Amino acid sequence: MEYTPLEISDVILVQPRVFQDERGFFLESYKKTSYASAGISLGFVQSNHSGSKQGVLRGLHYQVKNTQGKLVCAVLGEIFDVAVDLRRNSPTFGKWVGAYLSAEKKNQLWIPPGFAHGFYAVSSWAEVFYQATDFYAPESERTLLWNDPQVAIQWPIENGQMPILSPKDADGVPLAQADLFG
C-alpha cells in the first residue's frame, strides 16, 4: 500500500498494490496492520454501497455524535471525493481537499472523524463503496452546504450545470451555521 497525505494531512489517499495478469487482478483492499502503520487505526463497523448517475452530488454529510471515519473507493466509474475539515480547533478548519477516485486506479480515500464528506459522480455511472468507523445515526446526521462560498469547493461540474441533489443535500447549511467538532 502507498499512503499519501493530502494538503490536509489527516486525509490520506491510499493506493493499494494491484497484482494483475491475463486472468484479471487481485489486491488487498484493507489490511489492519498496514493501515495502522499509516495512522489509520480505527476499526470499521459498517459498509455502504451506492450508485449514482453522472452529475449526482452526494453530501456533504457528517454526524455530530457517532462520528464516522470513512474509507472510500469507487468500485465502478469515477468520482471526485471531498473532505471538509469541521474541527473548530484545527489549523485547517473550514478547508477542503478532494481527490479523483476510480475503479480503474483502485485508489481509496481515508477521511477521519471530524470531517464532512461528499462526492460528485464524474463518469456516466459510478458505484461507491465505503467502510465507516461508527454506525449511521440519522438523528445526529448533518449536511454542510455543497456550494458554500466560504468553503469554496472546486467541484468538477461541467459548463456550470447544477448538480443533481437530494432535497436533504440541497438544504445543507453553510459553515457559519454548521454544528462543528471540538
Count of alpha/pi helices: 2
H/E element sequence: EEEEHEEEEEEEEEH
Low-pLDDT stretches are: none
Helix content percent band: under 10%
Oligomeric grouping of the chains: single chain
Which structural class is indicated by helix and strand composition? mainly beta
Q: What integer is the average pLDDT?
A: 96
Number of strands: 13
What's the main sheet like?
A: 6 strands, antiparallel
Q: What's the architecture, going by CATH?
A: Sandwich
Describe the fold and architecture.
The chain is mainly β and 182 residues long. It has one domain: Sandwich (Jelly Rolls). Helix content is 5%, strand content 41%. It contains two helices and 13 strands. It has helices at residues 32-37, 167-170, and strands spanning 2-5, 12-15, 18-21, 24-27, 46-53, 57-63, 70-76, 78-85, 96-102, 108-111, 115-121, 125-132, 141-143. A six-stranded antiparallel β-sheet has the order 1-2-10-7-12-5, with no helix packed on it. A hairpin with a 2-residue loop joins strand 3 and strand 4 (24-27). The longest helix is centred in the N-terminal third of the chain and has 6 residues, at 32-37. It is globular. The model has no long low-confidence stretch (mean pLDDT 96).
Question: Which keywords apply here?
Answer:
mainly beta; Jelly Rolls; five-stranded antiparallel beta sheet; 13 strands; 41% strand
Compile the SSE list and pairings.
Layout (H helix, E strand, L loop, with lengths): L1 E4 L6 E4 L2 E4 L2 E4 L4 H6 L8 E8 L3 E7 L6 E7 L1 E8 L10 E7 L5 E4 L3 E7 L3 E8 L8 E3 L23 H4 L12
